[in-house]
Amino acid sequence: MFPPRLAADDPRLAGRHLLALPDDVAAEEVEVLALSRFVGSRWETPVPATAPRGRAARDPMAGVGVLRLSRHSSAVGPFALTADDVARLGLPDGTATAFLVATPRERGEPPYPGGDRDGLKRAFPDAVPVRDEERVLRWLVDAARRLAGAVRVADGAAVLVPDVGAGIDLTVYSDTWLDPASGLAVVQRAAPSARLAMDGVPWAGPATSPATGPSAAGAPGVGAGAALTGLGERVRRRLHARADEWDATALTAPDELDGYGVEVDLGADGLVVVEAGGDDVVPLVLRGLPWTADGVATYRVRWEPADVEELEREHPSAGHAASRTRAQAFVTAFARELQAVVGGEIADAAEFLVDPGDL
């Protein structure tokens, strides 16, 4: 059999996590997702293109590759799984191949109460993974969600089957900034009811304290005013003139926005919001590109359901899933329209790149 079989009773399963995948997932796809999250990821041993022969065929590791994730963690595979192996390991029907993942056993405190969308709290009820093991396990869950696979954890053999529909949010990274009017116009191509969300917050005046009243900057006889009483008249006039000049400049200069929002009300299905802003930090896979060197414009397209707690449930309600499906149509449409105008790249909630043609 090529790739080589991994039996359900194989001793190599002990102490290792398992990334289980459908038969239509190539090893190169796993490599791309690893490169998206791990700086030093690379094939230490490439996956052979053909089945090994002769003496090499008797090597239990022949026919598989070794994908380095980090200094201490690696993934070995792909291995083939029979239907019987799949059933005995408790993996989903349709699983055909798997990667064995070795990582240090690093555990911290018991999990905090609250949501558990990825199922990691359920899998590790006594002490959650930390450091490298946590990074690797979160990547495994995200990769399984992206590739419609599953994760079998080493301890207790819990099986995590991530909801492929969860995490519908998308972000467009670009070197092109759209002003609020332009951003709104682009979103309205897909949803004419979209509106700008830029309502200000009324200013309640300067901070006060019982002892001094208004803040020192504006209190006569206190703070700045009192500090100037010891200066000569000429110095005081010059300082006041400079302050007046600064105030006049600030009042006449145009407002500089570093972010804004566009939202679409979906009624019972919640809101879809586009948050336009900027960021100096980009996903790993985009670092080092010429257009990201000085930071990027970001257009984050997020869904806010009516019940936000449902977002963190491993198995959300049918109603939430239905709302999410309807909202996803808007999320993908907005990201597609924005990327068509500003260019750049689209990434999902796990910072994996998304081909606009797949939206």
Secondary structure: elements and pairs:
Layout: E1 17-22, H1 27-35, E2 42-45, E3 65-68, E4 74-80, H2 83-88, E5 95-102, H3 120-123, H4 131-147, E6 150-152, E7 159-160, E8 170-174, H5 180-188, E9 195-196, E10 208-209, E11 213-214, H6 224-228, H7 233-252, E12 260-265, E13 271-279, E14 296-304, H8 318-342, E15 345-348, E16 353-354
Antiparallel strand pairs: 1-5, 1-6, 2-3, 3-4, 4-5, 6-7, 8-14, 8-15, 9-12, 10-11, 12-13, 13-14, 15-16
Task: Report on this structure.
The chain has 359 residues and is α+β, with helices and mostly antiparallel strands. It has two domains: 11-160, no CATH class; 170-199 and 257-358, TATA-Binding Protein (2-Layer Sandwich), CATH 3.30.310. Helices cover 26% and strands 21% of the residues. It contains eight helices and 16 strands. It has helices at 27-35, 83-88, 120-123, 131-147, 180-188, 224-228, 233-252, 318-342; strands at residues 17-22, 42-45, 65-68, 74-80, 95-102, 150-152, 159-160, 170-174, 195-196, 208-209, 213-214, 260-265, 271-279, 296-304, 345-348, 353-354. A seven-stranded antiparallel beta sheet has the order 2-3-4-5-1-6-7, with helices on one face. It has a seven-stranded antiparallel beta sheet with strand order 9-12-13-14-8-15-16. The radius of gyration is 28 Å and the shape is globular.
- SSE class: alpha+beta
- Beta-strand proportion: 15-25%
Number of helices: 8
Measured distance between first and last alpha carbons = 36 Å
Largest sheet: 7 strands, antiparallel
Number of strands: 16
Helix content, binned percent: 25-40%
Whole-number count of domains: 2
- Poorly predicted runs: 200-228
Give, in order, the helices and strands: EHEEEHEHHEEEHEEEHHEEEHEE
Shape: globular
Oligomer kind: single chain
